[in-house]
Design goal:
The chain has a two-stranded parallel sheet with strand order 1-2. By secondary structure, the chain is of the alpha+beta class. The radius of gyration is 19 Å and the shape is globular. The longest helix is centred in the C-terminal third of the chain and has 14 residues. The termini are far apart. The protein contains six helices and four strands.
Length: 176
């Protein structure tokens, strides 16, 4: 089976998901290509499946579906095991009708969008970076997926917060 296209971090995620579902890795060939080429790769048979790390509705998914692809749910007991082992995975649902010929919701997994820095970054710098990021989110174009980041849920991450970011989130909560 050929799986692609693979973007940043995707090969690791694909390997985790396939292993959770009992698919032997030696039977999988990863195809490195930009996500925008996914529909073409599926349509021509160059890949059998593709994993996308995107917010919906994703134009690349629309193109793949228009080319004859179908969304496949990623759910069940393997997902529960995967989430137990890797708490950064979240349950996600693509609502029915999001894409053409999608009469039912599709269940899948996702990850939070995170800003990550070195732990030795100065506290003041991490604080200012976090503050400026959230202060300017509303100025981003509506199509930018970063706008989906939510200040209320941002500190609820399974990885430790940098002290500067933690200070910013505490201050925001105090001044509400």
């Amino acid at each position: 089976m050929a799986v692609g296209p693979t973007g940043s971090g995707t090969p690791f995620t694909v390997a985790l998901v396939l292993r959770a579902f009992g698919v032997p890795q030696q039977g999988v060939r990863m195809v490195a290509a930009p996500f925008k080429e996914g529909a073409t790769l599926l349509r021509t048979g160059a890949v059998d499946a593709m994993f996308m790390n995107a917010t919906y509705p994703a134009e690349n998914a629309r193109a793949a579906i228009a080319a004859g692809a179908h969304l496949v749910s990623i759910d069940g007991a393997p997902v529960n095991t995967l989430r137990n082992d890797y708490p950064f995975f979240r349950l996600a649902r693509i609502p029915a009708g999001t894409y053409a010929n999608q009469p039912e919701s599709v269940y899948t997994i996702g990850t939070d969008a995170l800003m990550v820095c070195r732990d030795d970054l100065e506290e003041f710098t991490a604080y200012e970076l976090t503050k400026q990021f959230f202060d300017t989110l509303s100025a981003l174009p509506a199509a930018d997926s970063l706008r989906l980041m939510n200040l209320d849920s941002a500190p609820a991450t399974p990885i430790p917060l940098h002290q500067g970011a933690a200070r910013y989130f505490r201050e925001v909560e105090l001044f509400r």
